[in-house]
UniProtKB/TrEMBL annotation:
BP GO terms, sorted: one-carbon metabolic process; S-adenosylmethionine cycle
PANTHER family: ADENOSYLHOMOCYSTEINASE, S-ADENOSYLHOMOCYSTEINE HYDROLASE-LIKE PROTEIN 1
Cofactor note: Binds 1 NAD(+) per subunit.
Cofactor(s) the protein needs: NAD(+)
Name of the protein in its database record: Adenosylhomocysteinase like 1
Family matches, as SUPFAM superfamilies: Formate/glycerate dehydrogenase catalytic domain-like, NAD(P)-binding Rossmann-fold domains
Domain S-adenosyl-L-homocysteine hydrolase NAD binding: 191-352
One Pfam short name: AdoHcyase_NAD
Matches recorded under Gene3D superfamilies: Adenosylhomocysteinase-like (3.40.50.1480), NAD(P)-binding Rossmann-like Domain (3.40.50.720)
Taxonomic lineage from the root: Eukaryota, Metazoa, Chordata, Craniata, Vertebrata
UniProt cross-references to InterPro entries, sorted A to Z: Adenosylhomocyst_ase-like_sf, Adenosylhomocysteinase-like, Ado_hCys_hydrolase_NAD-bd, NAD(P)-bd_dom_sf, S-Ado-L-homoCys_hydrolase_CS
GO CC list: cytosol
Binding-site positions, NAD(+): G222, E223, V224, G225, K226, G227, E243, N346
Organism: Oryzias sinensis
Residue positions binding substrate: T57, D131, E156, K186, D190
Length: 420
C-alpha cells in the first residue's frame, strides 16, 4: 500500500474496487453517516483503541471508518473464514486501518490474524468489538494483562453473549460488556429481517433451487428461524419447524407451521436449515437418512449446528461443485448438498442487506458512546435515525395523551420489559 505495511489482506491492489463498494454501502447507511458528520469535529472516541473481530464487508467498513472518523484507532480481523470481502479489506488497509483478513482463511490463519491484531508492539487495545466471542476468548486466555485493562467489550452475537455470561457467572469477567445482540434494534432487524431477505439469496446463488412446493425444515423458531420461515412460506415452500421451547413452538403453530421432530420428516425434506445457536442439531445419523439431492445449510451459529466433522469419513466422497457448494456422496450414490461447509449461509455465500446492517452498526456506535461518555441510549433513537429513509412521519403524543399513558413525550415509549 501507499501507507503502512501493518496489515495482511489478499490483494492490496483491489483497494479502489473496495472503496467503490464501501461508497455504495454508505448510500444505504445514512444514519451512521449522519452520526459521523455530527460528531466528527468533537472526536468523541479519541483515546479508544479498538480491536475488532466481525465479518469484514462493505457495511462493517462503514462502521469501522466511522469509529476512526470519531477518533478511535482500530485493528480488525474477520470472525468468519469465508465472509471477508477481499477488496474491502484492501480498501481499509489502504487508508491505514490494520486489517488482517482474507476470504478462505484456514483455521490456523484465523487465529494468527486474531493474534496479529492484539499482539503488536507499541499498541494495546482498550476496547473489544466482537462477533462470536473468539477474539474476547483469545485475549482473555493469551493476554490476561491486556484483558484486565480493557474498558469495555461490545459483543454482537447470541453465542458470544452466552460465552460472556458464562465467564461472568464464574466470576471471571472483570471488564464491562455490552450485549448488542439483545438490543431491540439488533435482534429484530439483523436477526429477523436480515435473515428473511438473505436466506433466499444464499440458497439461490449456491444451488439455483426453486422454492415452490419444496419441503423445508427450519430448526429453531427464534428471530432467525422466524425470518427464514416467513421468506420460504411466501415463495410457496412447505415449511416444518423444530423447536425445544414450547413458547416458540406455539408461535410457529400460530403462524401456520407444522412443528415436528427432525426425525419425523428427515426422509422426505428437500432442505434443512439450522437456526438454533446450538450444536449437533443435525447429526450424522440424520444426514445418512436424508434423500438424494437434499440440501443442508446453517443460518445460526458458526459451524457447529450441522455435525460436518462426522461427514469426513473414508466411505463418503466430497466433491466441490461450486465455490462453497459440496456434494457429499454416499457409497450408494446418494448425494447431499452441503453449503458453506456448515457455516453461516448468508454471510458466506451472499451479501446481506446494507440497510439492516446500518441499524446494527448505529447501535454499536451508540454503545461506544456509552462507554466513553455515558450518553443516554435509546434503541428508539437509532430507529428514528433510520425512519427518514422511508419518509416516515411519527405521530407525536399530545400533552394530554402523554399524561394519560404516564409517558415522557420524547420517550421511552415502552417499559423495559416490553418485548417488541
Ligand atoms: N445468519 C445470520 O445473518 C444471523 C443473524 C443473526 C443471528 N444469527 C445467529 O443465529 C442463531 C440464532 O439466533 P436467534 O436470534 O434466532 O436466536 P434465538 O435464541 O431467538 O432462537 C434460537 C431458537 O433455537 C431454539 N433451539 C435451540 N436448540 C434447538 C434444537 N436443538 N432444536 C430446535 N430448536 C432449538 C431455541 O429454543 C430458540 O427458540 C445465533 O447463533 C445467532 O448468532 C445469524
Amino acid at each position: 500500500s501507499k501507507g503502512s505495511s501493518d496489515f495482511c489482506v489478499k490483494n492490496i491492489k483491489q483497494n479502489e474496487f473496495g472503496r467503490r463498494e464501501i461508497e455504495i454501502a454508505e448510500q444505504d447507511m445514512s444514519a451512521l453517516i449522519s452520526l459521523r458528520k455530527r460528531a466528527q469535529s468533537e472526536k468523541p472516541l479519541a483515546g479508544a483503541k479498538i480491536v475488532g473481530c466481525t465479518h469484514i464487508t462493505a457495511q462493517t467498513a462503514v462502521l469501522i471508518e466511522t469509529l476512526v472518523a470519531l477518533g478511535a484507532q482500530c485493528r480488525w480481523t474477520a470472525c468468519n473464514i469465508y465472509s471477508t470481502q477481499n477488496e474491502v479489506a484492501a480498501a481499509l488497509s489502504e487508508t491505514g486501518v490494520a486489517v488482517f483478513a482474507w476470504k478462505g482463511e484456514s483455521e490456523d490463519d484465523f487465529w494468527w490474524c486474531i493474534d496479529r491484531c492484539v499482539n503488536t508492539e507499541g499498541w494495546q487495545p482498550n476496547m473489544i468489538l466482537d462477533d462470536g466471542g473468539d477474539l474476547t476468548h483469545w485475549v482473555y486466555k493469551k493476554y490476561p494483562n491486556v484483558f484486565k485493562k480493557i474498558r469495555g467489550i461490545v459483543e454482537e452475537s447470541v453465542t458470544g453473549v452466552h460465552r460472556l455470561y458464562q465467564l461472568s457467572k464464574a466470576g471471571k469477567l472483570c471488564v464491562p460488556a455490552m450485549n448488542v445482540n439483545d438490543s431491540v434494534t439488533k435482534q429484530k432487524f439483523d436477526n429477523l429481517y436480515c435473515c428473511r431477505e438473505s436466506i433466499l439469496d444464499g440458497l439461490k446463488r449456491t444451488t439455483d433451487v426453486m422454492f415452490g412446493g419444496k419441503q423445508v425444515v427450519i430448526c429453531g423458531y427464534g428471530e432467525v428461524g422466524k425470518g427464514c420461515c416467513a421468506a420460504l412460506k411466501a415463495l410457496g415452500a412447505i415449511v416444518y419447524v423444530t423447536e425445544i421451547d414450547p413458547i416458540c413452538a406455539l408461535q410457529a403453530c400460530m403462524d401456520g407451521f407444522r412443528v415436528v421432530k427432525l426425525n419425523e420428516v428427515i426422509r422426505q425434506v428437500d432442505i434443512i436449515i439450522t437456526c438454533t445457536g446450538n450444536k449437533n442439531v443435525v447429526t450424522r445419523d440424520q444426514l445418512d437418512r436424508m434423500k438424494n439431492g437434499s440440501i443442508v445449510c446453517n443460518m445460526g451459529h458458526s459451524n457447529t449446528e450441522i455435525d460436518v466433522a462426522s461427514l469426513r469419513t473414508p466411505e463418503l466422497t466430497w466433491e466441490r461443485v461450486r465455490s462453497q457448494v459440496d456434494h457429499v456422496i454416499w457409497p450408494d450414490g446418494k448425494r447431499v448438498i452441503l453449503l458453506a461447509e456448515g457455516r453461516l449461509l448468508n454471510l458466506s455465500c451472499s451479501t446481506v442487506p446494507t440497510f439492516v446492517l446500518s441499524i446494527t452498526a448505529t447501535t454499536q456506535m451508540k454503545e461506544y458512546d456509552l462507554f466513553f461518555f455515558n450518553f443516554f441510549l435509546f434503541a428508539a433513537y437509532v430507529a428514528s435515525l433510520h425512519l427518514t429513509t422511508f419518509d416516515a412521519h411519527l405521530t407525536e403524543l399530545t400533552d394530554d395523551q402523554a399524561k394519560y399513558l404516564g409517558l415522557n413525550k420524547n420517550g421511552p415509549f415502552k417499559p423495559n420489559y416490553y418485548r417488541y
